[in-house]
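Troubleshooting: if your tokenizer reports a length mismatch, compare your output against this known-good record of 225 residues.
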Amino acid sequence: MAVTDEAIEKIKAMIVSGELSPGDRLPPEKELAERLGLSRSSMREAVKALEVIRVLDVRRGDGTYVTSLEPHLLLEAIGFVVDLHDDDSLLELFAVRRMLESQATGLAATHGREDEIAALTQGIDDLDAEVSIDDLVAHDLRFHREIVRMAGNGYLSSLIDGLSSQTIRARIWRGLTEQGAVERTLSEHRAIADAIARHDPALATSLATAHIAGVERWLRQAAEA
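Known-good structure output:
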């Protein structure tokens, strides 16, 4: 079990056992992490994930509370997760994105200008492993959008942008729940940017294919689990 998944399960167990009730405030992050034998970083990501699915309510400057756990909130959250894990159409979207975007990345390696490539690389250099999930997803969208624009085909750019916008929630959920997702994403982005900088379309195409296929593989495994 991934560390973040373990943290999620331990917090959920506190709620199920009655140790935490609807409306209760969670202990401070440091105290809760020590009590459950978890790192503060994994605890932080677990809280974020449980906030997304409406189990916890993070109130900035006040603390983190268990929600009312009312059925309509939880059903909405369950719908969100089911949409990610069980909808075959989402896997089909990723498959189409993989086919189109990998070719666009090869074109970017052929047609990309030096200033565009420098900006692409700088966008990666500006981040580190401590980046928040929200900032990582924003970077991910920007990174792929800039590559597709370098391909120099406006119709292709619009088509891929439409596909990409429908996969945002899956990318957020992967970042929240898969161990090492942040570091792996940045490493793969850097490899793709390097291939584009070398003007090597074959390598850039292969790396982009593997990068997007990795998300497909995670999504399929999540559905099976």
